[in-house]
Design a protein that fits this description.
CATH class of the largest domain: Alpha Beta
Radius of gyration: 21 Å
Strand order of the largest sheet: 1-4-5-6-7-10-11-12-13-14-15
Number of helices: 11
Structural class: alpha/beta
Distance between the termini: 11 Å
CATH architecture of the largest domain: Alpha-Beta Barrel
CATH superfamily of the largest domain: Aldolase class I
Number of domains: 2
Order of helices and strands: EEHHHEEEEEEHEHEHEHEHHEHEHE
Largest sheet: 11 strands, mixed
Shape: elongated
Number of strands: 15
């Protein structure tokens, strides 16, 4: 386990520069009497790993002093890193107010995916998820969302991983960590704009996936406001079972959710990723598989079957491999690309549904 030294917390009442998109940065520097051209320079430097304070922004001492008197640059505090036997690494970050969040770095065949949290805790209350059992602590600001990516990049560089550019350190970003991303919509959108800005980290839409448990109005907003991949945590193909597992279904039922999926704008050859956790005796029968295939007809889809990761005392169990394979076969015969996702990082509680925000 690696324990990083504490970093300074943001100062209250001052503008947090890493919360700002490039357009917002332009407005801000103009308000300080600086030329607009400074905004791109400052924004680009703040989107690089290894930049922790004003002296590293590449501007004059006078500009450094001006910014330091009106703004702050925050970095994630007291991260601990645990490494799984399969190479997966889990980061626990203590935020300025003491809240804890977790992120996960998943290496595979020379590529790296980072699983990002959007909230400390979660209000959705899904019965099979440890994060949901915590309840919601608070939303994360854009700086805290983007900060996870920068902190992971810093760790990779410190570990000796080298790429031609910082952007190439990470292949994919998935918003599948703690929290419901669309329940923190405005901060999520700002973070996505920062991450995708060509003068910032420059991630393309095909490199970013946002997962939701099914906040239908915000799914429509996301499709209108920005282009990213969409993943839907489905987990059941009928309302009774889904409402038992996921309270959000009592507000936005399957008919409403799947209608939103059909409306979601997809580029050429793009699909919606449906995540389906396999729970023994609850949603794993072949009848469940046939119903799922029926419900998803007409939606460009990829289905990931997720064998349940048990965590502590729970009423749920994972079906045996034969049952999961039979379930997959039904879906494949119905024409769906269906994959069984092998858990990564389960031995350090870094797998799906296991993030609990503990150092």
């Amino acid at each position: 386990m690696i324990i990083y030294p504490q970093q300074q917390s943001p100062r209250r009442g001052q503008t947090e520069l890493r919360d700002l998109t490039q357009n917002q940065m332009s407005d801000y520097v103009i308000s300080l009497g600086l030329p607009a051209k400074r905004a791109r320079q400052i924004f680009a430097r703040l989107c690089q790993p290894g930049v922790f304070d004003f002296s590293q922004l590449g501007v004059s001492r006078e500009v450094v002093a001006l910014l330091a008197s009106h703004a702050t640059i925050s970095n994630l505090v007291s991260a601990t890193v645990e490494k799984s036997t399969d190479g997966t690494e889990k980061f626990a970050f203590r935020l300025a107010d003491g809240a804890m969040i977790e992120s996960v770095l998943i290496p595979e065949d020379g590529r790296h995916t980072v699983c990002i949290s959007s909230q400390a805790g979660c209000a959705m209350g899904c019965g099979f998820c440890l994060t949901g059992a915590q309840g919601l602590v608070r939303n994360l600001r854009p700086a805290e969302i983007v900060g996870q990516v920068l902190a992971v990049m810093n760790h990779m560089l410190a570990s000796g991983i080298k790429r031609a550019t910082p952007r190439e350190l990470l292949n994919n970003l998935v918003f599948m960590g703690m929290g419901e991303p669309l329940a923190n919509y405005d901060n999520l959108l700002a973070a996505l704009v920062i991450l995708m800005d060509e003068h910032g980290l420059g991630f393309s839409e095909r490199r970013i996936t946002v997962s939701t448990c099914g906040l239908v109005p915000r799914m429509d907003d996301l499709g209108r406001d920005i282009r990213v991949n969409l993943a839907v945590s489905l987990h059941a193909a009928d309302d009774a079972v889904r409402s038992r597992l996921m309270p959000v279904n009592r507000t936005y039922g399957l008919e409403s959710l799947l209608a939103a999926c059909r409306r979601y704008p997809l580029g050429k050859k793009k699909v919606i990723l449906f995540e389906y956790i396999m729970l023994k005796g609850i949603n794993d029968s072949l009848a469940n598989a046939r119903l799922l295939a029926e419900k998803l007809q007409g939606i460009p889809s990829r289905i990931n079957l997720l064998p349940y990761n048990a965590s502590g005392d729970t009423e749920y169990a994972c079906p045996d491999e034969a049952q999961t394979l039979a379930f997959q076969k039904v879906l494949r015969e119905a024409g769906f690309n269906t994959f069984i996702r092998q858990s990564r990082g389960a031995d350090i509680s870094a797998a799906c549904g296991q993030l609990a925000g503990k150092a």
